[in-house]
Amino acid sequence: MTNTQLPAIITSANVTKHYNQTYALAGVDLSIGLGESLAIMGPSGSGKTTLLHCLAGIIRPDEGNIRLLPTDRSAAAEVTSLKEKGRTALRREVFGFVFQQGLLLPELTAEDNVALAAMLSGMKRPDATKHARAWLQRLGLAEHLSKRIGQLSGGQAQRVAIARAQVTQPVVTFADEPTGALDSATSTEVLSELLASTSGRGSTLVVVTHDETVAARCSRIVRLADGRIVSDSPNQPQQVPNPQMPNPQAPNQQGPNQQMPNQQPAPTRYEAPEQYVQNAPYMQSNR
User: Fold this and answer.
1) What's the chain's average pLDDT?
2) pTM of this structure
3) What is the CATH number of domain 1-91+205-236?
4) Has the keyword Magnesium been applied to this entry (predicted)?
5) Among residues 93, 112, 142, 215, which one has the fewest Cβ atoms lying within 10 Å of its Cβ?
6) What's the CA gap between 92 and 16, in Å, rounded?
7) CA distances, 219 to each of 71, 96, 187, 207, 232 (Å)
8) Helix axes of 125-138 and 154-166: crossing angle, nearest 10 degrees
């Protein structure tokens, strides 16, 4: 199924995954647009998390293929054909992730959790720290930079997870029940921040959720049952007030609003030059 309003960034064709005799996915065809917010819904066991993991290159489908289409910031790739090192590089360089429990490193501070993600993508530590601080400030955590994860509330920890996912400016962000462990008010705030940081700046958000109120704020809703897509429809996102986030500038910096230190224009779909394709880390790792 295809969203014809936006250029595609990820496509899947006949994606199938089974465990023993049970099919988690049964021939899923899906095209995800660049800049859209897509909610994947369905009852427990419907295959929605398995689909997200396949799209993100975390697991391989047993059949079918998944393709990443080129942008000015990412080369095209057959995700299902990449070796493990290639898929790891793809997740590090092009994708961002936000999970229900955050999966943050408890022994590190909020700042170090975010800076580590930037350094793993090749950023030098001084720049990584600068960008981490700026993103955490943007998300209202300027006073919590040096706190460890256990010292933060659930909502604060999820904001750290969002900052970690966005510090590398991913083309696609995958979120698995990102508000599932939060109360309704905090959920609304965190989702606002997640949407503003992803589709709000022209990149793509794919979110798995059980929550109809979360799906209602996305631009498209796909529903699964028994490993198959049973509905795929555009949605007029429900509007809520934007989160009151501080100016996106580094701590102790004065002056008018400035662009995030590593903020790039929205990704644009186009055929990447051959040199870029060859130099893409996930293509190099696949050799």
Assistant:
1) 85
2) 0.85
3) 3.40.50.300
4) no
5) 142
6) 25
7) 21, 19, 18, 11, 11
8) 130
Query: 């503003």: which residue's tokens?
Result: 196
Give the helix/strand (H/E) hosting 23.
strand 22-33
- 143: phi then psi, degrees, rounded to nearest 5: -90, 5
First and final C-alpha spacing in the chain: 32
Mapped onto helix, strand or coil, the DSSP state of residue 158 is helix
Phi and psi at 197, nearest 5°, equal -80, -15
What backbone phi and psi angles, to 5 degrees, belong to 49? -70, -35
Contact 227, 23 (CB under 8 A): yes
CA 237, CA 229: separation in Å to the nearest integer? 21
In tens, the pLDDT along 64-93 reads 999 999 888 788 999 999 999 999 999 998
User: Kindly report the CA angle at 83 between 174 and 177, in degrees rounded to 5?
Assistant: 15
Domain map (residue ranges) of the chain: 1-91+205-236
What is the per-residue pLDDT for 247? 40
Task: Examine the pLDDT at 224 and tell me if it is beyond 60.
Answer: yes
Q: What is the DSSP letter of 167?
A: T
- The mean pLDDT value for 195-203 works out to 91
Which pLDDT tens digit goes with each residue over 242-266? 555 444 333 333 333 334 555 556 5
AA letter at 34: L
Whether 101 contacts 135, CB under 8 Å: no
Tokens describing residue 161: 């997870």
The residue type at 50: T
Taking 3-state DSSP, the helix, strand and coil percentages for the chain, each rounded to the nearest 5, stand at 35, 25, 40
Question: With bands split at pLDDT 50, 70 and 90, how would you rate the model's confidence at 284?
Answer: low
Name the E strands within the chain: 8-19, 22-33, 37-41, 63-68, 77-78, 95-99, 172-176, 204-208, 220-225, 228-234
- Residues in CB range of 104: below 8 A, 6 or more apart: 113, 149, 157, 160, 161, 164
Q: Which two tokens stand for residue 127?
A: 């720049």
